């Protein structure tokens, strides 16, 4: 754009502003101020979210002497990868990550499978006490799992199926120490966040036009065939969102994993023990009487945290397009 065109544009702008009695100028100033405020608000929110992660990355590559050097703030003076080696050793990283991938993947698939069926049933069918059972689903969302932890422990420690097992064998079954209780809970829609998945899927199916199913019935499809071939393909957005939520929450869960999967090495559980293992390493291996300092312990914990969330970041990088599309589609339909 040449100088003459710019001058003509500004002359046209001020002419329009004069005709509007200054309204155009006031509106332009308000829009500019709004953009400035929005920029600083978004920048501040992004900084609050990303700054702790950047801080952990900086600490994770610092040698121990840099942690107590007042001149070192962000960029380490002595770069090292020993922190990652120690954290990986304490967590038995590769074996633990393989276990975590397997458990998170199987649990997420099981949860989404059963929650899809239940959510579709709540959205499309009428049955006795439907509102009561959906209120129970809401209670599963509202009530924290710690409230029923004692009941869960006793139930699976003395597991019995309607008294049949005790009648046949004379005693109950102890399911503690195995992954079976958690898989049973997930299959019964009582796993981690299952109530939320049922609610989201139910809301999605409620907004699908009933004419779609009626057309399938007219074409000769039964209820099951309509659900599998007509409804499920259209529900890919919400199912993708729920699956990613289920996978990530299971990956970082410490409550259910510690209660039911304690004998299986998982990243979330191993991370909780990394500080204690560092202290034992400093005392018994390096023969330091005082163990690890608080600052160095936090450094190794931060390094372990990064190693735990790194696979999730990779997952998001590969799945971000489908994930964002899933959320936007679900938001429009809900």
TrEMBL record:
<protein>
    <submittedName>
        <fullName>Carbohydrate ABC transporter permease</fullName>
    </submittedName>
</protein>
<feature type="transmembrane region" description="Helical">
    <location>
        <begin position="36"/>
        <end position="54"/>
    </location>
</feature>
<dbReference type="Pfam" id="PF00528">
    <property type="entry name" value="BPD_transp_1"/>
</dbReference>
<feature type="transmembrane region" description="Helical">
    <location>
        <begin position="101"/>
        <end position="120"/>
    </location>
</feature>
<keyword id="KW-1003">Cell membrane</keyword>
<dbReference type="InterPro" id="IPR035906">
    <property type="entry name" value="MetI-like_sf"/>
</dbReference>
<keyword id="KW-0472">Membrane</keyword>
<feature type="transmembrane region" description="Helical">
    <location>
        <begin position="179"/>
        <end position="200"/>
    </location>
</feature>
<comment type="similarity">
    <text>Belongs to the binding-protein-dependent transport system permease family.</text>
</comment>
<keyword id="KW-0812">Transmembrane</keyword>
<feature type="transmembrane region" description="Helical">
    <location>
        <begin position="295"/>
        <end position="319"/>
    </location>
</feature>
<keyword id="KW-1133">Transmembrane helix</keyword>
<feature type="transmembrane region" description="Helical">
    <location>
        <begin position="132"/>
        <end position="159"/>
    </location>
</feature>
<feature type="domain" description="ABC transmembrane type-1">
    <location>
        <begin position="97"/>
        <end position="318"/>
    </location>
</feature>
<dbReference type="InterPro" id="IPR000515">
    <property type="entry name" value="MetI-like"/>
</dbReference>
<feature type="transmembrane region" description="Helical">
    <location>
        <begin position="234"/>
        <end position="252"/>
    </location>
</feature>
<keyword id="KW-0813">Transport</keyword>
